[in-house]
Amino acid sequence: MEAFRLTAGGVRATTQIHTHMCYSEFNDIIGAVAAMDADVISIETSRSAMELLDAFANFSYPNDIGPGVYDIHSPRIPSQQEMETLLEKALKVLEPRQLWVNPDCGLKTRGRAEVKPALVSMVAAAKAVRNRLAVHHARPGPQ
């Protein structure tokens, strides 16, 4: 945590700091993760079906989180619906303003033929979930 803050501490206040953590049990280190004060943390959650987000919910993590919706370690291309389902699960734990949509990790292990359709589905899933949220929030509440 101290090393991370040291390396990111010299940037302008307007610079957004992102970090990524591969498969971790966050429950034991969630306080230190929050103390890093990264604006956004991306984590690998597609294989666990968002289970790793429990640590962030129970801790009330203050910053933004990008839980992965596409397992890049597998050649299988997930459907748009699968990714939407993961995003909906994430929204049970996170506020919409906290949620970033991204693959689990970098894409270097996959070829273009796998990555392109997966990312097209990921973008479509993000748009579909955003549209549902917009419709839900646009409805007038009880008076």
Describe the structure.
- It is a single chain.
- It contains five helices and three strands; from the N terminus they run H-E-H-E-H-E-H-H.
- The chain has helices at 2-8, 30-36, 53-59, 80-91, 112-138, and strands spanning 18-21, 40-43, 64-67.
- Helix 4 (80-91) crosses helix 5 (112-138).
- It starts with a helix and ends in a 5-residue tail after the last helix.
- The model has no long low-confidence stretch (mean pLDDT 89).
In short:
With 143 residues, this protein is mostly helical.
Blueprint (SSEs and pairs):
Blueprint lengths: L1 H7 L9 E4 L8 H7 L3 E4 L9 H7 L4 E4 L12 H12 L20 H27 L5
Parallel strand pairs: 1-2, 2-3
Short key terms for the protein model shown above:
143 residues; mainly alpha; three-stranded parallel β-sheet; 3 strands
